[in-house]
Amino acid sequence: MGNRGMEELIPLVNRLQDALSGAGQSCGLHLPQVAVVGGQSAGKSSVLEHFVGRDFLPRGSGIVTRRPLILQLLSAHTEYAEFLHCKGKEFTDFDEVCKEIEAETRRLTGSNKGISPVPINLRIHSPHVLNLTLVDLPGITKVPVGDQPVDIEYQIRDMIMQFICKENCLILAVTPANTDLANSDALKLAKDVDPQGQRTIGVITKLDLMDEGTDARHILENRLLPLRRGYIGVVNRSQKDIDGKKDIKAALLAEEKFFLSHPAYKHMAERVGTPYLQRTLNQQLTNHIRDTLPAFRSHLQSQLLALNKEAVEYRQYSPDDPAHRTKTLLQLVQRWAVDFEKVFDGSGDKVETVNLSGGARINRIFHEQFPYELVKIECDERKMRREINYAIRNIHGVRTGLFTPDMAFEAIVKKQISRLKGPCMKFIDMVSKELITTVYQCINKLSSFPKLRDETERIVTNEIREQESKCRDQVSLLIDIQLAYINTKHEDFIGFTNAVYILSQVVIRKGWLTISNIGIMKGGAKEYWFILTAESLSWFKDDEEKEKKYMLPLDNLKLRDVERGFMSSKFVFAVFNTELRNVYKDYKWLELACNSLDELDSWKASLLRAGVYPEKVDGQGNGAPESFRDPQLERQVETIRNLVDSYMSIIYRTVRDLMPKTIMHLMINSVKEFISSELLAQLYALGECSALMHESPEQQGHREEVLRKHAALKEALTVIGEISTSTCTTPLPPPVDSSWIQPSSCSSPLSPTLLKNSVTGAKPAIRGHAPPVPRMPIPTGPTAVSRTDGLQQLASQPTRAPCVPR
User: Would you give the DSSP letter of residue 785?
Assistant: First the structure.
């Protein structure tokens, strides 16, 4: 075969592929191979059958190759075939090989022209082949037939691209000689992924079917439409020959005779034909494999290194050894306890970057969700004042109260403190849920032993529930302690005197109002920014409150309704002095207008809070609501409201501080301590150590897969170590101008006249024509094998005789 130093290289790479296949996957390694690309009926299958010397591929009209066929050719003393999906079965009848390919294709694609990217692996051992690994891909089609989808063209192109885009794949672009070469789909696809032409070899088929007077001499000489690696011409059997069962050996002899006798090709007969193509591919693939060996070795070593630690552990594991089971149980529980603690401490080996987990989620509950739950319980302001009002009046009974009663303050405060129990219990629920979620997340590390996982989960979850119950009792006790004694001497409590002062300073309401009773001569109605406090009503030019227009004291002021005018869209009320004094300049009353009825009611309620009440209307009793009849009562309500706010702010701060500490101590730390010190003892107390350490079927399969993969990688590295790279190689030809190949999305037809011009040597007038380039070097010495030798080897084979199994 030549290239002696590496003549076993392709079989070794096939061994490498077998080793990696034994691992159940290819470890992300793309092995060197030759992909055969071309349109439908371009002659791809015929080229492969000529390589083998046997009819073994399905035939028919339309798309026949509907799944990629990975074909490994191995030189051997006996002839047989084997499929990867039929391990251990040898096929000596190649008609059976054809039937098996058809059956396996139908298994995934159906019987109506569907396609699938899942490859079929076929290995053929024969004394009549050179070592090659080829991939026969579906022919490029344009129009869907049968049950093919409407985008069949793009599906096939995507499937082809999955193979030829890999740098370790040589591309065999097959184009019939009786079609436009410049419009070849195979060459366009190759150009897309291999623009420099370093991996593309052109094959011209059907040279014997060209129109009379035309030939492809200049194309095969790489003078017309050049490729970097050039073209090789072949002559396959015609459909008539196939139907007539013409023997492939006879076809090869006819091919040789055609090239030797044709005036355009006889001078290059040694550089065309199927045997030369086979030798060239063998040489190119061998060189390609040798060039990629360093990357192979590096990738395999990194894969092996990643598996070493796990493989060593699995190799030492003995499921039937009680001592080893006990040791493994101890190690697993200790490791799980450490991992569980790390999740809360934030020192885990893997940092989550997508979501919060473990301790971070509980921290968010402590400082975001729990304070939010406390804020949510703040009651409605009107409801709070009504409760205070009723409390004061109920405490006074039939008497008229002169002072603010302490009992009303205590009653309201205790009611507010009691309402804290709900958010605190919800807080405990949230933390308990996060603890159990974390247990579920960490427990997956024990999934190799289902019984151990289930028992650990049960014991730890029960402990969390028990600590949760203790925590609830403690929190209830904390709430009861706060209810037991209202400490009005707390340093942060404002006290009664400060509450009265605050009452005088507090802003009750702000908003825009229009003074509507100012005459036109004095400027007319204007809108101002009003601020109402317990002592005064002030208005400013705007809401920045920089320029104060007036401040009206609230003493002796009353509130009066004003009927809305027929054309007015405003809602109006008035304030006046009960002693008939002017309230503003020379005005006895001040009419204030707002934009909506709700706004009007809101201002009236605010004025009532400030002690400004409606005037009595004869025959209708007091116009004020029941809850605001007494100005003194309203001031007492406001005073207690301020006192309640001050005291509850102390309670809120205390609860926000104590609750996380209580839960941290009684739940989180207690559970962590239990896992690290008590969990193992409770597991041993079950008395079922052997049952706890019973492996799941998935874990057993994973362990065997890791060991198998580890052994496969070691074997693959051993195979690569056997390969000698001290060998001669054929240098890559110099670059050529391949701009004549259009992108795959457009086409540029090449007429048969252009091929005819090649006979006379006329210069074709096409874009992208390149000057002549040197012919591809002819192998000499040990690498050169004559066509006659190869044909004689094929001629020694019996015609379609069944081969004897080895």
Answer: -
Q: Which tens digits make up the pLDDT trace of 234-293?
A: 998 877 777 777 888 888 898 899 999 999 998 998 989 988 988 888 888 777 777 777
- Residue 790 is classified by DSSP as H
How many CA atoms are closer than 13 Å to the CA of 529, on its beta-carbon side?
9
Tracing tokens 């139908």 back to the chain, one arrives at 106
Q: Over the chain, what is the mean pLDDT?
A: 77
Instruction: Give per-residue pLDDT as tens, 571-583.
Output: 899 999 888 888 8
For residue 41, the 8-state DSSP code is: T
Backbone torsions φ then ψ of 338, nearest 5 degrees: -65, -45
What percent of the chain has pLDDT above 90?
A: 9
> Which residues does residue 38 pair with via DSSP β-bridges, in sequence order?
174
> Quick one: pLDDT band at residue 505, thresholds 50, 70, 90?
low
DSSP-assigned states of every residue in 266-324: GGGGGG-SHHHHHHHHHHHHHHHHHHHHHHHHHHHHHHHHHHHHHHHHHHH--TT-HHH
3-state secondary structure of 560: strand
Q: What is the largest CA-CA distance in the chain?
A: 137
The amino acid at 235: V
Residues 6+ apart with CB under 8 A from 95: 55
Identify whether the C-beta of residue 479 lies closer than 8 Å to the C-beta of residue 420: yes
Cβ count within 10 A of residue 87: 8
Q: What is the mean pLDDT of residues 161-190?
A: 86
The 3-state DSSP class for residue 618 equals coil
Q: Tokens standing for 92?
A: 């000596």
Q: Give me the phi and psi of 140, to 5 degrees please.
A: -70, 125
Q: Is 79 helix (H, G, I), strand (E, B) or coil?
A: coil
What are the E-state strand segments in 108-228?
120-126, 132-136, 169-176, 200-205
Return d(Cα 143, Cα 157) in angstroms, integer.
13
Residue 82 pairs with which residues in a beta bridge? 123
CA angle, 179 as apex, 177 and 180 as ends, to 5°?
110
- 3-class SS at 749? coil
Unique residue bearing structure tokens 């003393």: 77
Burial pattern 330-343, b for ≥16 Cβ within 10 A else e, equals eebbeebbeebbbb
Q: Which amino acid is at 560?
A: R
Half-sphere exposure of 186 (CA within 13 A, CB side): 31
80-83 and 169-176 beta bridge pairing: unpaired
